[in-house]
Amino acid sequence: MTIKTFCLALLLSLPLSAQAALTIQHWQTPRGAQVIFVESHELPILDISVDFPAGSARDPGNQAGLAQLTHILLDQGAGGLSDTAIAHRLADVGAVLGGTFDRDRGGVTLRTLSSAAEKDVALDILARVLQQPDFPQAVIKREKQRLIAGIREAEADPGSVAGKAFYRALYGAHPYAHDEAGDPAAIAKLTRGDLQSFYRAHYSAPNAVIALMGDISRAEAEAIAARLAGGLSGTAAVPALPKPAPAKASEQRIAFPSTQSHVLVGAVGVARSDPDFFPLFVGNYVLGGGGFDSRLMREVRDKRGYAYSAYSYFMPMMEAGPFQLGLQTKLAQTDDALKVAKDTLRQFIADGPSEAELTQAKANLTGGFPLRIDSNRKILEYLSLIGFYKLPLDYLDTWVGKVDAVDAATVKQAFARHIDPDKLVTVIVGGARAR
Known about the structure:
Blueprint lengths: L2 H10 L12 E4 L5 E6 L5 E8 L13 H8 L9 H10 L3 E6 L4 E8 L2 H16 L5 H18 L3 H14 L12 H6 L2 H11 L6 E6 L3 H13 L19 E5 L5 E9 L8 H13 L5 H8 L7 E5 L7 E9 L3 H18 L3 H13 L1 H4 L3 H13 L6 H10 L3 H11 L6 E5 L6
Helix pairs in contact: 2-8, 4-9, 10-13, 10-17, 11-12, 12-17, 13-16
């Protein structure tokens, strides 16, 4: 095995011994970027993420897809290097560049060896990608075509059709209604100038959250963060997103040539900072987040055989994200399965979990917690979450205690505050037979 092959294999290996407690350090760079850092010398690896409020919710109303395309183009030519040159330089030092994109965030991640020679090359590439994206015209044309083709392909997937319709029905005119991939007609009209303007407005130092995890000292972390933020613009932080209004009860049935119906039911849920997060999180494990342990699985699958799987979840975001319940079922039993799912939800909101259900949920969640932080990469994901959503620095240290502190009464009260079973949004895709 060559040294480079060994290095790459080491970078991609995930398991690490979980730490009993993580010392999370936090500061702000002179340019205004927020930094969150955990020092760990167990492996000669450094993981970095740099996130910005540059997700699809930031798309202008008539330019759906601008945020996604800008994010895609960051590493497709930067600082005078082509996309091929960037890939080759990273491969030469066994480093891996990645990214994060959703409705809230657009970001870049790097995993590199912590040895000076390899780290310096990898950090040079990361700095170019963050600070000097070239947005080459030929690459813009290519990526626009790829993005549009991907959207068209997704139109043949009933699950994708249902998800897009669900967000539109749930959020209406709110920016969270924007599909992450965008709109083909809008994407086709985007220009290089549009990308540059979006980049300057959103990928600035005051908007940046830099998370570092791994084999470096505090002094090295400060130098790296200052270097990454120093080359970003000083454009002021973007304003907060508007708060979503509660959705009105609605039902939408979309014809689709499929043998099964895709059913989504939900409501506007909670923001990531909501104090009800833990009661809702634990309660939802009982309702539909615990797999075969959940009520939805018992009622929809085990007792009646209506679906292979039925689930529910909250997706907290910067503002109130969705609560979603979903299942797939045969066309002929769609209404029956939907009724059982809604009745199960209604009963859970009215009664809350039993003590036995709650005890099992908390045991499973706390027992599985070490697996949530058993690798540098997983810890980095939590660091970026803590930094971006301004969660307490002791979030990981107190997580188990907050789960254990949840009782049946707080679950029932939290669900009653946030989910009205008479004001649910329902989307059903399926029902038209292929000719």
